[in-house]
Specification:
43% of the residues lie in helices and 16% in strands. With 219 residues, it is an alpha+beta fold. The radius of gyration is 19 Å and the shape is elongated.
């Protein structure tokens, strides 16, 4: 969220389009002169804004637009777009851990399958390397309850990230239940998906944010 009395729109240094700050990433210069992302928009100093996609950040780096905006006295370490991706993934994984503490994240095939029968599930989560059989069985259970393509399915986390969120090993399947902590997970995942340009995946594994918001109230 923008600070009080700050503009709610900024201009992207690549596209020159004015957009809401929620669709942009702020970059600032660290004390060592390195350009760093300010995902929470709280770091001090003058910032510049880039549309929140990897392709746009890569363009800003390639065209040396950060140097132009900061009068040339900066360093942009190679791979800036990949570092932003890693930070967004870390933020999403951190939100998962908070959801578990809040009681709105459950893990394990059996628990997820049972939750799909009657609990206010708002999203399924499968580890990126989850087996096709488990995914298919839980997908069938979701379709019986919610209909085709109505329940978001998140596949951006590795098994190790799910293990960390739960504080135990071998977590492959999980589900988010309705609640503010789960809304935060969905928002962080949406940021990552949008940044990667995966928000319209052909397999329907992650639906539009408007539908996510509709589902967050539960069935």
């Amino acid at each position: 969220m923008p600070r009080q009395n700050e503009p709610t729109e900024r201009t992207c240094i690549v596209t020159r389009a004015k957009k809401p700050v929620g669709e942009l990433i702020r970059f600032v210069v660290a004390p060592d002169g390195t350009v760093v992302p300010d995902l929470r928009r709280k770091l001090p100093g003058r910032g510049v804004w880039v549309t929140a996609t990897a392709a746009t950040v890569e363009t800003a780096e390639r065209k040396r637009l950060f140097h132009k905006q900061f009068d040339g006295n900066v360093t942009v370490e190679p791979g800036l777009a990949a570092r932003v991706d890693a930070l967004l993934l870390t933020a999403a994984a951190g939100a998962l851990a908070l959801a578990r503490k809040a009681g709105t994240l459950i893990g394990g095939f059996g628990k997820v399958e049972a939750a799909l029968a009657s609990d206010p599930v708002v999203a399924l989560i499968h580890a990126a390397d989850a087996g096709a059989d488990g995914i298919a069985k839980l997908g069938a259970a979701a379709r019986r309850r919610f209909g085709e393509g109505k329940l978001p399915v998140i596949r951006c986390f590795g098994a190790e990230q799910l293990d960390l969120a739960f504080g135990r090993t071998n977590v492959i399947h999980a589900a988010l239940l309705a609640g503010p902590a789960s809304d935060n997970v969905l928002a962080r995942v949406w940021d990552l998906v949008g940044y990667r340009g995966d928000d319209d995946r052909p397999d329907g594994s992650f639906d539009a944010l408007t539908e996510l918001n509709d589902l967050s109230a539960g069935p």
